[in-house]
Amino acid sequence: MSSIDMVEALAVKAKQSMPKIIFASAAGTMVEWYDFYIFGSLATVIASKFYKTGTPLGDVIAWLATFAVGFLVRPFGAIVFGRVGDLIGRKYTFLVTMSLMGLCTFAVGLLPTRDQIGDLAGVILIGLRILQGLALGGEYGGAATYIAEHSTHGRRGFFTSFIQITATLGLFASLGVILVTRSAVGEATFSDWGWRVPFLLSIVLVGLSLYIRISLRESPMFAKLKKSGSTSKNPIKESFGNPYNLRWVLLALFGATMGQGVVWYTGQFYALYYLQNIFKVPLVDSNLIIAGALLVATPLFIVMGWLSDRIGRKPIMLAGMALAAMTYLPIYSAMAGYAPFIGNAADKIANPAYSPFMLGVFVFIQVVYVTMVYGPIAAFLVELFPTKIRYTSMSLPYHIGNGVFGGLVPIIGLSLIQSTGNNFAGLYYPIGIATVCFFVGLFFVKETNQVDIDDAATSTAMMAESVGNAAKAAAGGK
Question: What structural domains does the chain harbor?
Answer without folding.
Answer: 19-472 (1.20.1250.20)
